[in-house]
Amino acid sequence: MRRSAGQAAAKADKSGAKWRKELWDWTRTLAIALVVVMLLHYFVFNLSTVEGQSMEPTLTEKEWLFVNKISYFIGKPALGDIVILEDPSDRPEKKEFLVKRIVGVQGDAIEVREGQLYRNGELIVERYTDSEIEDIDFGPVVVEPDKYFVMGDNRHARASLDSRSFGTVSRDHIKGRADFVLWPIAKIGGL
């Protein structure tokens, strides 16, 4: 049986319409997926890579961290949290993100005496660091409302880039809490 020219044209139109519908469905699916990924990245979590030695021995350079952002939308940073924060110093060369530990919250008096950290006059024994602070005595500094005092775990580093150099950190600078190490595989685990 022979097809007429009209039947062939109708079939081509159906084929073209089907192809356009398929393309529209894929485009819409990819756009929705992109929006979901962007929302998750902005509000829920992201990944961060450790640079430098300021958090040793807890974290080492090149480790990948899972950063939980939603925890600070529903709660506040707490003592001992390892946080990712925007560098609050006025260094003109570039803005970067830092990984530090919260050692003081609102109302705490933080000081360093004879290589030891004191909070509210009490010596703080930190299980995550075994080093004395190699720096001059510091403080006491009282942490203001909605501010945090942060330090790296590697206290051997002189002139460390932390709250001793740039002061207390506002909540706006803290981008999330590092909850666990994702890479390397041998170090996967919670913090």
> What sort of overall outline do the alpha carbons produce when their principal axes are compared?
elongated
Largest sheet: 8 strands, antiparallel
Q: Please mark out the parts with pLDDT under 50 across 5 or more consecutive residues, or reply none.
A: none
List the total number of helices: 3
Mean pLDDT: 82
End-to-end separation in angstroms reads: 74 Å
Walk me through this protein's architecture:
This protein has 191 residues and is α+β, with helices and mostly antiparallel strands. Helices cover 25% and strands 30% of the residues. It has three helices and twelve strands. The chain has helices at residues 5-44, 71-74, 163-166; strands at 45-49, 64-68, 82-86, 97-104, 109-113, 116-119, 122-123, 138-142, 147-151, 169-170, 174-183, 189-190. A hairpin with a 5-residue loop joins strand 11 (174-183) and strand 12.
List keywords for this structure.
2 domains, 12 strands, alpha+beta, 191 residues, 8-stranded antiparallel beta sheet
Quick structural overview:
25% of the residues lie in helices and 30% in strands.
